[in-house]
Amino acid sequence: DAGVTQSPTHLIKTRGQQVTLRCSPKSGHDTVSWYQQALGQGPQFIFQYYEEEERQRGNFPDRFSGHQFPNYSSELNVNALLLGDSALYLCASSFRVESYGYTFGSGTRLTVV
Amino acid sequence: GQNIDQPTEMTATEGAIVQINCTYQTSGFNGLFWYQQHAGEAPTFLSYNVLDGLEEKGRFSSFLSRSKGYSYLLLKELQMKDSASYLCSYTGGFKTIFGAGTRLFVKA
To answer: Does the distance separating the beta carbons of A104 and B43 come in below 8 Å?
Structure first.
């Protein structure tokens, strides 16, 4: 039973470019949340998708957008990349309510140069 | 507003017991989670409290007091592999908010 799968694992982009990160949730999960984790910090909530709609959003600018597909997989898009966007991007899946905790993917390490 | 605080670092000895505290302030609360995160890896779920009291799971226990906005994670019989960051988080509405994490160093 596959857990949460994220791709790519590492990525280097130039300031001003756009990036798309991908996530496949754990089998049986229908909700996907995205987090940004800077070095030495806790994960910061970006947004959550359920039934192909953004259900809740954290304090991130509109440069951060996402999508959820009918098979529950999800994408995170970041436009006009800034150096400060360099971080580990984590995808977490759950079944509806988070009573049993999230299952996290291993993350995508994004470096903006 | 949303605020969650936990100590930055703690050090304990192998075989000992350590308690990691967490305080939070939020207008909406559905539950309190603890996650373990080893360096360079994804967080893994440890425990969940929705009602006041103590939840025990093997060497790990977690306590919650909703009226005080307080939780702690208790780790018993510490092992070297317990050296990691421990993330306190709460759910409110449809989002889970994480603290900055407590880095635990277990020494021999």
So the answer is: yes
Q: What is the mean pLDDT of chain A?
A: 93
SS3 A82: coil
Place of tokens 């030495």: A40
Q: Whose structure tokens read 């959003």?
A: A57
Q: Could you tell me which chain A residue has the CA closest to the CA of B46?
A: A101
d(C-alpha B63, C-alpha B32), whole Å: 9
Over residues B61-85, mean pLDDT: 97
Note the pLDDT tens digit of each residue in A38-84.
Answer: 988 999 999 999 999 998 899 999 999 999 999 999 999 999 999 99
Q: Give A93's contacts (C-beta < 8 A, 6+ positions apart).
A: A4, A23, A25, A26, A29, A31, A32, A33, A72, A102, A103, A105
Look up residue A33 and give its two tokens: 């949340």
Average pLDDT over residues A20-48: 94
Beta bridge partners of A11: A110
Size of interface A-B (CB pairs under 8 A): 59
Helix then strand then coil, in percent of chain B rounded to 5, is: 5, 60, 35
Q: Is the peptide bond before A8 cis (omega within 30 degrees of 0)?
A: yes
Q: Do A41 and B96 touch (CB under 8 A)?
A: no
